[in-house]
Give the backbone structure.
Amino acid sequence: MSSSNTRLGTVLLSLTLISWIGGYECLVNSKCNLEGKWKNELGSIMTLSPLDKNGFFTGTYHTTVTANSNLVTKESPLMGNLNVFTADTQQRVFGFLVNWTFSNSVTSFVGQCFVQKDGTERLQTTWLLRGSAATEEDNWSQTRVGTNVFTRLN
Ligand SMILES: *[C@@H]1O[C@H](CO)[C@@H](O)[C@H](O)[C@H]1NC(C)=O
Ligand SMILES: *[C@@H]1O[C@H](CO)[C@@H](O)[C@H](O)[C@H]1NC(C)=O
């Protein structure tokens, strides 16, 4: 009885270790780990750092479009998180925030990575852009919503 319990315990521990190490390997090596350069349908480019083991990443965002066409764009920093709850690395969801360095505004993105039949990855995202209202009475006017699809560059 007790020896079979011990054996069961050993098997469970081994399985846990294997899946834990396997999960980390997938995060580092697999499709949809987000690291690298991505381009959206408007030509904006973002570069994402390697993820840490909790799925945190940082990066830069170079937009080709602005809500105010008088602005001169500058590469802006971002930080985000890939949710690693699921073992299926090809179905992961993520979110990140871009801190625009050329205007008083921020954009939060949420999205999911999908691997296509030919193996290419696509990031389906939805964003909220928050601009600055001169007064609280104007608060209502300063949030925009949109979508972007990113594909991997190179
Ligand atoms: C956010 O952008 C501002 C400039 O608008 C910059 O001064 C600040 O360092 C940025 N923050 C981060 C975390 O990059
Ligand atoms: C402030 O504006 C946002 C949209 O920009 C809106 O969703 C929110 O309800 C507004 N807050 C108030 C108190 O009206």
